Amino acid sequence: MKGSQKNHGEYRLPADMQPWANEPLYLIIARWCLQQNRWINRNDVAAAFYLTERRTSLQLAYINQKKNRIACRTRIHVSDHQGHYHNEIWVDHILSSPIENYVRSSSSRRRSEPSKNSPQTRRVGSGMTGHGCLWETILRRVRVEQGDE
């Protein structure tokens, strides 16, 4: 069965993926990967869904980033005979609905507003306080020395 999405173009669904035809493509691919119960690379998905390797790579990257919906593992596999690196994914579980308030990592957490009693730690500028007119003073001295004022 052919499917299409506005932002993905056409693709073909494997026969066992028909019940999920109305879901987004990344979820259909994730379900297919889950059913395979093995490490999957972009060539496997491209062959099953008739996608280009580039589109398949983007879909797999998106699946890997959707931690609030898809539990998966990734690895880098090196081909023995050619020495090429291939990213592979293993889907462990698909959640029926996204986890609310999921935080991927400490670097992606939103910082809370600083309390009124704590000092501000992110000040922008040269770090010199009390010298707001220093630049104007320096410019004035240079102009006086040159006779411009």
From TrEMBL:
Taxonomic lineage of the native organism: Bacteria, Pseudomonadati, Pseudomonadota, Gammaproteobacteria, Enterobacterales
Organism encoding this protein: Salmonella enterica subsp. houtenae serovar 18:z36,z38:-
Gene Ontology biological-process annotations: DNA-templated transcription
InterPro entries in alphabetical order: Tscrpt_reg_CaiF/GrlA, WH-like_DNA-bd_sf
Protein name: CaiF/GrlA family transcriptional regulator
Stretch list, region Disordered: 103-130
Signal peptide segment: none
